[in-house]
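[User]
Protein folding is very new to me. Any chance you could explain this protein sequence and its structure tokens? I have pasted everything here:
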Amino acid sequence: MKSKACLALDGANGERIEVLEQSDGALVIRWVEPGRCHYGEQRWRRRSAHTSGTCAVSRRKIRRGDAV
């Protein structure tokens, strides 16, 4: 997996999402919701969306079948 400079995103509800590593097919992220949860390091792999919704990281709309 390629290392990437840590990219931090602050959400509307105070959550902090950090992209720690990135490759063509996966991300390693750290997700923290102050006062609620700390999810530590998670590996997310690229897949097709099973349902429509909103991306937790970018807040973009997702349609069923989109590569996510």
Remarks:
- The chain has no helices and six strands.
- The two ends are 18 Å apart (CA to CA).
- The mean pLDDT is 82.
- Residues 3-62 form one domain.
